[in-house]
Amino acid sequence: MKPIVSKESIVYFGQECYTALNTYLEKANHSKIAILVDSNTHEYCLSLLMSTIEKEYDIEVIEIEPGEIHKNIETCSGIWNALSELGFDRKSLLINLGGGVVTDLGGFIACTYKRGINYINIPTTLLAMVDASVGGKTGVDLGNLKNMVGVISESEMVLIDTEYLGTLPVNQMCSGFAEMLKHGLIQDREYWNKISDLSQLDIEELDQMIYDSVVIKNKIVTEDPTEQNIRKYLNFGHTLGHAIESFYLTHPDKPVLLHGEAIAIGMIMEAYISSQLLSLTEEDLQHISDVILATFPKIDIESKDYQEIMNLLIHDKKNEKGTILFVLLTSIGAAKYNCTVDDDLILKSFEYYKSL
């Protein structure tokens, strides 16, 4: 597959990843290299990566605990200290081998350690392949508030090899699929139609589906790298989805939701709002709801929790001057950003989801 070029980075696919990586490592002549993993990618993915590196380099492996709950400044502090103690300088390289937590957090660490060292993302989950590793967004959570601290700075390259997906649990695959569905909903009805029926999908087509999803996201972020306008489209489903994810992340009596599971709920609710405020048809709303619920189990959101979830919306990063701003759909394949929604309609979107 042809590499996808963004403003400052290149996304490689399949075996070409490792040709590009070895060429880069030889030319760059980094003083030291660290590979950031979590305990899962250390066990299941690191050996594959190491087997592809052709020459001997001074490589350190730094491991963190898996999961969104560890995507915080405390984890960063531990890694910054580790890099310092290991003698990493500004000519060093950080390779992030993992899902969205590792690539988001690792990118942030690289951008801030000694005011910036080079980094490479090697996503190992479907979610990270189609979303977290592309576009230069890095960051960590502040308490239960998603990605509140971070910078936008692209990696040297992104390497997407679907062989890493072989050990991924089904729920993690589905989590990534939510972002692929989102890309279709905001930009490309044909792509949505292609992937919306999982029963018709051939696993052999997965590489092409991922490629097409990255093309959609890359086109948007190349035109608007700092999210001044159309990059906001990528937040469809995320205003309510992030609030739901944050609420469930730290509530002692609630299950922790994967990112894609929360965004799936957010997309249904925000599609409902779109049908009430914009031109999304009732037929398309029902189709979106049916497709998402065919993949993602319905979550019981109790009525007594609605207001507490809504209180978290004020922290959404798209907000301006205290106004909560949504991305909504005008149709499948077309979106509008900077939409305001009153509280009564948000509450009705909860009830719509509950009624399905």
TrEMBL record:
NCBIfam families the record matches: aroB
Role noted for this protein: Catalyzes the conversion of 3-deoxy-D-arabino-heptulosonate 7-phosphate (DAHP) to dehydroquinate (DHQ).
Residue ranges occupied by any 3-dehydroquinate synthase C-terminal domain in the UniProt entry: 176-319
Gene source species: Aquimarina aggregata
Superkingdom in the source lineage: Bacteria
InterPro entries found in the cross-reference section: Dehydroquinate_synthase (IPR050071), DHQ_synth_AroB (IPR016037), DHQ_synth_fam (IPR030963), DHQS/DOIS_N (IPR030960), DHQS_C (IPR056179)
Enzyme class: lyase
GO biological process: aromatic amino acid family biosynthetic process; chorismate biosynthetic process
UniProt cofactor(s): Co(2+); Zn(2+); NAD(+)
Example of a GO MF term: nucleotide binding
Keyword vocabulary terms for this entry: Cobalt, Lyase, Metal-binding, NAD, Nucleotide-binding, Zinc
Entry's EC annotation: 4.2.3.4
CDD domains: DHQS
Pfam families in the cross-refs: DHQ_synthase (PF01761), DHQS_C (PF24621)
Cellular-component GO terms for this entry: cytoplasm
Descriptive protein name: 3-dehydroquinate synthase
Gene3D superfamilies referenced in this protein's UniProt entry, alphabetically: 3.40.50.1970, Dehydroquinate synthase-like - alpha domain (1.20.1090.10)
Domain 3-dehydroquinate synthase N-terminal residue range list: 62-173
Lineage per the UniProt record: Bacteria, Pseudomonadati, Bacteroidota, Flavobacteriia, Flavobacteriales
